[in-house]
Amino acid sequence: MRWLLTFVLGVLVGAGGLFVWLRQMPHAPTAPAVAVNTGSLPAPAAPGPGLDGKLPPAPQVMPDLTELDLPLRPGGTDAPATAAAPASASASTSAPAPAAAQGKLMVPVEGMPLAKITDTFDQPRGTERHHEALDIMAPKGTKVIATADGKIVKLFTSKPGGLTVYQFDPTEKYAYYYAHLDRYADGLKEGMDVKRGDLIGYVGSSGNADPNAPHLHFAVFELTPEKQWWKGTPVDPYPLLQP
């Protein structure tokens, strides 16, 4: 019996020593758990009202360029839309007048001396662009004549320009544009060749022109390689007119 008690006592003493030894062993620190967000990022919040209580305006889209006077450009609102940069208020988008063409164009209103014409090409039209044409004031019914040889490529009616004529020069590098006509010359047709000084129409106030101020809106523009009658780079006609 004594040997059994001695054996049990030895086992208990050995177990206590093992427990003390395990308590004194160094332990590696446990890394703290990190929460991982597996969800998707939230969508950006819609812009709220400003200090004045109004929502910020939506991005503006430039309208299609149109034709004349208010402010307008060859083509008209009914013509195919063109992608062209608007002119700034301080600089014109016109191309320099070709030296070879200077003094080669006839004043397109019969009996109108150059001295009575004002160069309105660079006059501002709002804050976005310039006039890019000449307004030649004349009584209603005054004859409008071809400024140079060429071909009638388009007879076009638009809300801003009224009755208009597009003429290409013989090289099809430049187009001549006549607008606000009262009526066309009898027999005028698209595809017709005309000579310098030929009758093509009559001064009027069609389109957006003031009925009390009939005039011819005359523009010149350099055509693109596609030769589209409604599209080109404006050229100041005034230096090209023959005195």
TrEMBL record:
Bias kind Low complexity: ranges: 79-96
Pfam families xref list: Peptidase_M23
Domain M23ase beta-sheet core span(s) in chain numbering: 130-237
Keyword annotations of the record: Hydrolase, Metal-binding, Metalloprotease, Protease, Zinc
Cofactor: Zn(2+)
Record protein name field: M23 family metallopeptidase
Region of interest (Disordered), residue spans: 69-96
UniProt xrefs under InterPro entries: Cell_wall_metabolism_enzyme, Dup_hybrid_motif, M23ase_b-sheet_dom
